[in-house]
Amino acid sequence: MKRLLTALLTREGNGFVALCPEIEVVSQGDTVEEAKANLREAVELFLECASPAEIEERLSSESYVSAMEVEVA
User: Fold this and answer.
1) CB neighbours (10 Å) of residue 38?
2) What's the Cα-to-Cα distance from 56 to each of 10, 40, 51, rounded to whole Å?
3) Residues 1, 58: contact at Cβ < 8 Å?
4) CB of 42 within 8 A of CB of 51?
5) Sign of the alpha-carbon dihedral angle for 41, 43, 48, 50
6) Per-domain residue ranges of the chain
7) pLDDT in tens, 2-27
8) What angle do CA 63, 24, 42 make, to 5 degrees?
9) Neighbouring-strand partners of residue 9
10) Whether 15 contacts 49, CB under 8 Å
11) Element (H, E) at 52
12) Is this model's pTM higher than 0.90 or not?
């Protein structure tokens, strides 16, 4: 079974941090592609090893990514 999850990638120093906010799993890599592949592996391992109760507890039904405008002093 496949499920569509979110991957948020952020540059940190010389690499990238990747977050799956629905289940709060994080990974990293030297490139965007590597960080995303490492995140996919980490998420798959979590889903394989975690109990159904833990998955249900951590899995959010909806995630939104949105830009917002803020005032900067």
Assistant:
1) 17
2) 26, 18, 9
3) no
4) no
5) positive
6) 8-58
7) 888 999 999 999 999 999 999 999 99
8) 115
9) 18
10) no
11) helix 52-58
12) no
